[in-house]
Amino acid sequence: MFRRLHDAAGERVPFTVDGRAAEALAGDTVAAALLANGITVCRNTPVSGAPRSPYCMMGVCFDCLVTIDDVGNRQGCQVRVAPGMRIETQDGKREIDR
Amino acid sequence: MSDVKTSYDLAVIGAGPAGLAAATLAARQGISTVLLDEQPAPGGQIYRSVTETPVRDPKVLGPDYWHGAGLVKPFQESGADYLPGTTVWSVSRNLEIGLSREGAARILPAKHIILATGALERPFAVPGWTLPGVMGAGAAQVLLKSSGLVATGNVVLAGTGPLLWLLAWQYLRAGAEITAVLDTTPRANWRQAMPHMTGFVRSCYIGKGLKLLLDVRRKVKVIGNVTALRAEGDGQVRSVVYRQGNGAEQRLPAETLLLHQGVIPNLNLANAIGCAQSWDDAQRCWTPQTDGWGATTVEGVSLAGDGAGIGGALSAEHQGRLTALDALHRLGRIDRQQRDRDAAPHREALEKARQGRVFLDTLYKPAQDFRVPSDDTIVCRCEEVTAAQVRDAVKLGCSGPNQAKSFLRCGMGPCQGRLCGPTVTEVIADARGVSPAEVGYYRLRPPVKPITLAELASLPKREDEIDAVLHH
Ligand code: FES
């Protein structure tokens, strides 16, 4: 779990994750916003279905893949949260079978 | 971006210290320069979010971090164009850059290209490292710098290297709690590092480094000589199991485990362009070959900063300037004498910044057991391939990472070997009883980052279309 420092400055940004309302701080990436809201698991892997959370936060591991505004497999750590953004965690197996 | 040109004299890829310094120097000399960067704001990873971090108290991130702000301002005033949020997925031999930006792909030609792609954390494959809650220490640092987020609950840091201690120090400054630091620095490293002590004593690292270490040791439980490590939990890390020396296994509760064992060059783009690379035994990593000016084996492509071999942020900055001077010379803007004359102060500064590096490399060289993991460890996170599977493939005649790809699919996932390549190299070398130099590395092909069909379809096909896209 992660918490925000008390003096962290910035505007609040509303978004939804799997249909639930949540709030980010302006400048948060999608991956950071999920972690700040207590959501550690972004996706399950297509190979074994194992849950994954962001590992590198700099665009190299691809463990942060989520669906953003209906576009799947986006790197959550490389995209900034925008007001009203709809984020969905991904089930890798389901995406493959679909 | 109405002011983006259709081509540039110089394109710099990566807005960390090397890229910022290179682009600034070149643009000031009046050549058309563009800086392309994946992040939305300048700074690279080391100075990430330095222009916009929500962490207001400057003491939390420390003066070395804020030094980065001093690189951004001159860059902004240099006249260079800047394309943040841009993914470069290919560079052709005739120096055409394939990039994606705002969901559309385009081709941008340049006369010279400086790669300043920086470093990434060396993979630290231990059993359980794919569990949610396990992250790189560098990732935790990004969360702190760019979002003011710190881990809560039981937080364990494990590994070796300056960045691990820096993160611990920053966490303490931020008022975050750390359950323990598990130090995996091998005891024998101290003995091997001693002969290089004099360079370190003269370096800028020693005063700061020792103070930081003492600060952390005073406030956090540090468990040294850790020789084995694994994360356990069901769908989320719950505990860390470790061994000290030859001692019995011990267990610590952990909801967050932050791993780190140094950084290595991020070489995927250089590799895919075809730049020759070689095995660096001291830093235990593959490094693209460069000359004293950062020139690679590919005409028109040079490399500056940690992507050309780990030297740290200050070295990167000076290298960036040297590489830019050479680019100016190659582009016919300055003659050889002026290049050499202008380079002198930067060379001197680079030498100074490099002092102590050998000591640090030797001291923080990760232990064999953490570079060559046990059988049950997943080495390729994308395809979930274990070390045992790699060893079995070697028994069947697989001689290097490229063959391992076709045997096991490792290195074929979206990360393109960034998180498994070094480990696969070391595991195969160990199993065959040869040097990593002999087993080689993945041969990478563009695109080095996945691009969507929609992005590809948006690619302009003719000169005038390219023009239209770039001036939309
Ligand atoms: S967390 Fe590694 S790519 Fe996003």
TrEMBL record, chain A:
InterPro entries: 2Fe-2S-bd_N, 2Fe-2S_ferredoxin-like_sf. Keywords: Oxidoreductase. This is Sarcosine oxidase subunit alpha. GO terms for molecular function: iron-sulfur cluster binding; oxidoreductase activity. It comes from the Bacteria. It comes from Skermanella aerolata.
TrEMBL record, chain B:
Keywords: Oxidoreductase. Pfam families: Fer2_BFD, Pyr_redox_2. Signal peptide: none annotated. One of its GO terms (molecular function) is oxidoreductase activity. It comes from the Bacteria. Residues 378-429 form the BFD-like [2Fe-2S]-binding domain. CDD domains: GlpA-like_Fer2_BFD-like. Residues 8-320 form the FAD/NAD(P)-binding domain. This is Pyridine nucleotide-disulfide oxidoreductase.
